[in-house]
Amino acid sequence: MSRQEIISNNPAAVIVLAAGAGTRMKSRTPKILHTIGGISMVGHAIAAAQGLNPDTLAVVVRHERDLVAAHIAALDEGARIVDQDEVPGTGRAVQQALEALDAQASSQPGEQPGAQTAVEGTVVVTYGDVPLLTTTLLAELVDTHNKDANAVTVLTAVLDDATGYGRILRDGTDGTVLGIREHKDATESEREIREINSGIYAFNAAVLREALKSVTTDNNQGEMYLTDVLSLARNSGGRVAAVSTTDRWQVEGANDRVQLAALGTEHNHRIVASWMRAGVSVIDPATTWIDSTVQLAEDVTILPGTQLHGKTTVARDAVVGPDSTLTDVQIGEGAEVTRTHGSGAIIGEGAHVGPFTYLRPGTVLGADGKIGAFYETKNVTIGRGSKLSHLGYAGDTEIGEDTNIGCGNITANFDGVNKHRTVIGSGVRTGSNTVFVAPVTVGDGAFTGAGAIVRKDVPAGALTLTVAPQRNLEGWTAANRPGSISAQAAENARASDDSAN
Q1: Same-domain check for residues 66 and 213
Q2: pLDDT tens per residue, the chain (501 residues)?
Q3: Distance separating alpha carbons of residues 35 and 88, to the nearest angstrom
Q4: Which one of 159, 185, 250, 412 is most buried, counting C-beta atoms within 10 A?
Q5: Number of domains in the chain
């Protein structure tokens, strides 16, 4: 059996073109690093390519080379980074990638020293700024290419309005692709064609390699056009065909922030719809945003105005929202999170958070616990059944089980130089406006009185008070705020008391 015969149906290589500057983004961030659904555009492109299980994945870079290359390495450490040189054009980018892959193939273990081994089989070319392209559609492209033994197979889309796009010219007899006509060069009848070129291809590696030798920069733009390979392949007797999709979003790129937002909206629409089909209740899909990396269980309910980002996970029967933004938050079964902004937090099963709560990283709320209205927490562990109900702050704190922290309590954890820790035991009850001056420990079952300032450790079962005698200065308002509303109210009260007596 020949080497060609044992090549699998998976592509020999996928080449992702990611060298462009993306100047229309008007951003210091390279275009392909802008995100949709919590993942960079090139991240989406690489994920779609990885799904094909290619022998090799290559990404061609140029603009902000080091930044882009580091990002790609973080996404796929095995991806081959290829630098595009000064010669512009997609044809040159693919040529350099193929040369790099050929060189890599020649250096594989088992090859004879000095042997010239080249990549064989199918080479897929796609782009780093086409984030909604799926592995499923790419696989259809590859399967059709291999099954029909095509020299080139181009992915096309059918648009209602194809203005500005290159049109696909087909043979009226067998439907093979005759060529691509750019809009500006098309005749009136050709402009009626709605099938357009996506720029995404499957190539026979040998055909691609040979055709690229004849592609020049002899054109108005001075670029090596990859589209020239189609006519060269056909002229050499190769079959050029197309796979067409009616889902235009899969071939849409983002060149500016308007297009990026449109793609982001469509991507989110698809993500939200997929979760609803999986058993999640999303009350208002239009105001709900869910990143690609979020995980939701069946019977979760998402209320309007909710945004779930990063590695957020939500367990069965939990309710999130309305008006909540959560990043990298774990929510347990049956928990409720209302009007909350949080990141890096863990919320236990059956727990309640909100409304108007700020969960900072390191917050761990135990099962059946509560963090209530206008509370901020940071680096705090709260035991099962404990409650921080309203108007307070807990930072660098450990709280035991079944403890009730009163209204207006805070942990004063910062001395101006260092952060210190507060430890509050189980079964503790604290009065309103208690201040814990860290480092301090409160034992199990202890109580604090209203307004207590706790500077020293409190033994288990003790009551701690901050006691100062109350002083009433008679006539202070009239003497210090004469003519004020308060002074008049006090005078009226005295007059009423005198008449009653």
Answers
A1: yes
A2: 233 433 447 899 999 999 988 899 999 999 999 999 999 999 999 999 999 999 999 999 999 999 999 999 999 999 999 999 999 999 999 999 999 999 887 666 655 555 557 899 999 999 999 999 999 999 999 999 999 999 999 999 999 889 888 899 998 888 889 888 888 888 999 999 999 999 999 999 999 999 999 999 887 778 898 999 999 999 999 999 999 999 999 999 999 999 999 999 999 999 999 999 999 999 999 999 999 999 999 999 999 999 999 999 999 999 999 999 999 999 999 999 999 999 999 999 999 999 999 999 999 999 999 999 999 999 999 999 999 999 999 999 999 999 999 999 999 999 889 999 999 999 999 999 999 999 999 999 999 999 999 999 999 999 999 988 889 999 999 999 999 999 999 999 988 888 876
A3: 26
A4: 250
A5: 2
Quick check: is 267 catalytic?
A: no
Same domain, 202 and 301: no
**Would you call the peptide bond into 88 cis, given omega within 30 degrees of 0 as the criterion?**
no
Closest of 21, 271, 54, 53 to residue 129, by C-alpha: 21
Catalytically annotated residue among 44, 309, 352, 390: 390
Spatial CA neighbour of 18 closest among 67, 57, 68: 68
Q: What is the CATH number of the domain that holds 303?
A: 2.160.10.10
d(CA 55, CA 366): 47
Nearest to 239 by CA among 304, 157, 173, 148: 148
Length of the chain: 501
Residues 333 and 196 grouped into a single domain: no
Per the structure, the complete domain to which residue 91 belongs is given by 4-251
